[in-house]
């Protein structure tokens, strides 16, 4: 339930303009953007932290984190381009506006979601360990 509450709260905070709800294209872009924040969060929560950070494999954790953020950002933007292309009815020049600057501008948001996933997992593990010692 905590995860559901956090994502509903986060989705509400991310919704800056309620007029998005009236435009199917903008609503889909908003939903995909929010979905990819969740994908970043849970990639770190379920995979990166348990496989590397919890096993004290810090260099692999950093390397995997960087690679995951690059890939997740690319897939996220590709998904958004797909929505724009479907609503625009043309696949011509699909990645025409994609640039390194655009890619790098999306990475901090994905990194924040990943950091929250990491912190959430670390804190929950710490609380479980603390509780088991009592």
- Rg over CA atoms, rounded to whole Å, is 17 Å
The ordered H/E elements are: HHHH
Provide the structure class: mainly alpha
How many H/I helical runs? 4
Shape, per Cα inertia axes: flat
As a percent range, the share of strand residues is: under 5%
- On the 0-100 scale, what is the average pLDDT? 84
Portion in helices: over 70%
Uncertain residue ranges: none
Question: The biggest beta sheet, please?
Answer: none
Number of strands: 0
Which helices and strands occur, and which strands form pairs?
Blueprint: H1 2-14, H2 24-53, H3 58-88, H4 100-133
Helix pairs in contact: 2-3, 2-4, 3-4
Please explain how this structure is put together:
The structure is a single chain. By secondary structure, the protein is mostly helical. 81% of the residues lie in helices and 0% in strands. The protein contains 4 helices and no strands. It has helices spanning 2-14, 24-53, 58-88, 100-133. The longest helix is centred in the C-terminal third of the chain and has 34 residues, at 100-133. The mean pLDDT is 84.
Short overview:
The protein has 134 residues and is mainly α. It has helices at residues 2-14, 24-53, 58-88, 100-133.
Throw out a few tags for this protein.
134 residues; mainly alpha
């Amino acid at each position: 339930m905590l995860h559901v509450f956090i994502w509903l709260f986060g989705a509400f905070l991310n919704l800056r303009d309620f007029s998005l709800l009236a435009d199917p294209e903008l609503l889909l872009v908003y939903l995909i953007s929010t979905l990819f924040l969740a994908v970043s969060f849970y990639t770190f929560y379920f995979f990166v932290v348990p496989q590397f950070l919890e096993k004290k494999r810090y260099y692999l954790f950093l390397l995997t984190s960087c690679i995951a953020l690059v890939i997740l950002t690319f897939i996220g933007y590709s998904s958004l381009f797909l929505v724009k292309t479907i609503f625009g009815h043309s696949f011509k020049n699909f990645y025409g506006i994609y640039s390194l600057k655009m890619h790098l501008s999306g990475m901090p948001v994905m990194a924040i979601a990943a950091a929250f996933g990491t912190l959430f997992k670390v804190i929950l593990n710490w609380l479980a360990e603390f509780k088991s010692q009592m």
